[in-house]
Amino acid sequence: MKIGITCYPTYGGSGVIATELGKGLALRGHQVHFISYALPFRLNSFVENVVFHEVEMSSYPLFEFPLYTLALASKMVEVAKFEHLDLLHVHYAIPHASSAYLAKQMINGSQNLKIVTTLHGTDITLVGLEPSFLPLVKFSIEESDGVTAVSRFLKEKTLTNYDINKDIEVIPNFVDTQHFKPTVANCIKNRLAAEGEKIMIHTSNFRQVKRVTDVIKIFDIVQKEIPSKLLLVGDGPDRSECERLTRQLDLQDKVKFLGKQEGLVEILSCSDLFLIPSQSESFGLSALEAMACGLPVISSSVGGLPELVRHNETGFIAEIGDVERMAKYAIDLLTNQKKYEMFSKKSRERAVNVFDISKIVPLYENYYKKILEA
Ligand code: GMT
Hints:
This protein is of the alpha/beta class. The chain has helices at residues 13-27, 68-82, 93-107, 122-125, 134-143, 152-161, 186-192, 212-223, 239-248, 264-269, 285-292, 305-308, 323-334, 337-355, 357-373, and strands spanning 2-6, 31-36, 50-54, 87-91, 114-119, 146-149, 169-170, 198-203, 228-233, 255-259, 273-276, 297-300, 315-318. The protein has two domains: 2-174 and 356-373, Glycogen Phosphorylase B (Rossmann fold), CATH 3.40.50; 186-355, Rossmann fold. Helix content is 44%, strand content 17%. The strands form two sheets. It has a seven-stranded parallel beta sheet with strand order 3-2-1-4-5-6-7, sandwiched between helices. The protein has a six-stranded parallel beta sheet with strand order 10-9-8-11-12-13, with helices on both faces. α8 crosses α13 and α11 crosses α14 (337-355). The chain starts with a strand and ends with a helix. The mean pLDDT is 96. Bound molecules: ligand GMT. The site of ligand GMT has 19 residues, from α1.
């Protein structure tokens, strides 16, 4: 197949999934064309069958706001025509699904281009619900030839919040468990924590929905009972608030802000426990990457997290904001070696058996075939 993929190219789960999917499809012999305003960050080396097309943006004094949605639609038309695309797969509805709709209309029957939209999270649960976007998101979803959601939760939310009567296929996120795997990383561990200390970790874009301050509050309770360190990976709007809270709790020697990191596997591998106490989370790809590295996960009970984390098996789930309970679960696991090892093993097994890339890419491939034949 000849497939166009549009996603946000910066750090973020939807861009990661889109890029890894494209690479996986290319490995299976499909021609993949990425269309975005910058090279997706996981597309950092040559991959056979993959081409990147940059959406060029010019500035013009009359345009107070950049017209990316329109420039993207024009680029989609150009690539679809010249590369004879069968299908455009857009990740994150806003504005990608709208650009794709427009591109399809512009091609106007000269080519049977199909549009598949994958819903990822805040495109449905947050931004998409804003009055200025809601009608457009609803329309773009209804007009897509195929729609997938990364969890059952997100599918249900889409159908009810947007009053949509359409088949939405649930295709969960995935991870390459050959890459994300427990790795002997003692040298890094020695640099991050003292001998015998446990390491708790959180990775995110530090937005309000992630509740990173809860991560610090959980750690504050745990470190009073267990010698430990907290690693915070990533960056975003809430980082300053988190740094302030860390100093207020006098934890500055125990909480390490590592910023954005490329070598996540090594860092995860030398950690013991992953925390994700989010306010909203349609899937929780960062938690899956941690599970693949053998980390049990302590999460809130929101969104798609319970579809990923098995309570009392691969981790623990608690109500949003219940930092005491989450800390209790963390202490329980970190002080019970046998139980910890069992949870760690089960986490890795669940990532490999249910969410490995080799299991999920064929689901997309089959879904494309179904849409193309419809
Ligand atoms: O929706 C977002 O906040 C951004 C998006 C992204 O691009 O990272 O994250 C969402 O998509 C990820 C990939 O499918 C999911 O793992 C995240 O759970 C989801 N984020 C939220 O629902 C908050």
